[in-house]
Design goal:
- The protein has a domain of 30 residues.
- 57% of the residues lie in helices and 0% in strands.
- It is built from two helices and no strands.
């Protein structure tokens, strides 16, 4: 892939923006691992 072709697949500004808005969420999730309520208990899928 050439440089121009690669820019069609990866928009660098969009990638940086997504990384910036995801960092605080990842840090929070790593600090508060026990702080989430699991609403996806699949009790009706027992065999």
């Amino acid at each position: 892939m050439t440089g121009e072709n690669m820019m069609e697949w990866i928009n660098i500004f969009g990638t940086v923006f997504i990384m910036v808005i995801m960092v605080p969420n990842i840090v929070f999730a790593l600090k508060c691992r026990e702080g989430f309520k699991n609403d996806w208990k699949q009790s009706n899928c027992k065999n």
